[in-house]
Amino acid sequence: MDPLSLAASITALIGFGLGCAKTIHNLVRSVAHAPSSARQLAEELELLGTVLDELVRFLRSEKAAGRVFHQHDLLVASKASCEARVAKLQEKLGRVKKSSLTGVLKWPLNEDEVSQEMAAIHQYVLVFQFSVTIDGLCVVPCLTDG
To answer: How many domains is the chain partitioned into structurally?
Structure first.
């Protein structure tokens, strides 16, 4: 995969992640008893979008020209894994239910799930942040070769 194709697919992930963050913000305002960590999860998704935006700018620059990314390179594999993780999170957020007793909407994730999602998203942020550096971009594809 060339840098411009990778940048295009990452751009789609940015929109998906930011959409998920918006969903969380809307749910926090709408549901009863959303944990305070829900806002932190939305902020982590927004940070992911910022870091991915930096990565897209780098991939579109001349510094990345001529590079080829393969399916098993850490950057490409992390992007695919991150997409799947954000899609699964969006699916979980879509399972908002009303309480049978009060009729009030309930937050769809428990505290442990929110913590796990935050930790996972943070790991993606670190990988993508590392990939933005020239040295990191040169090293990341090589990490999966051995």
So the answer is: 1
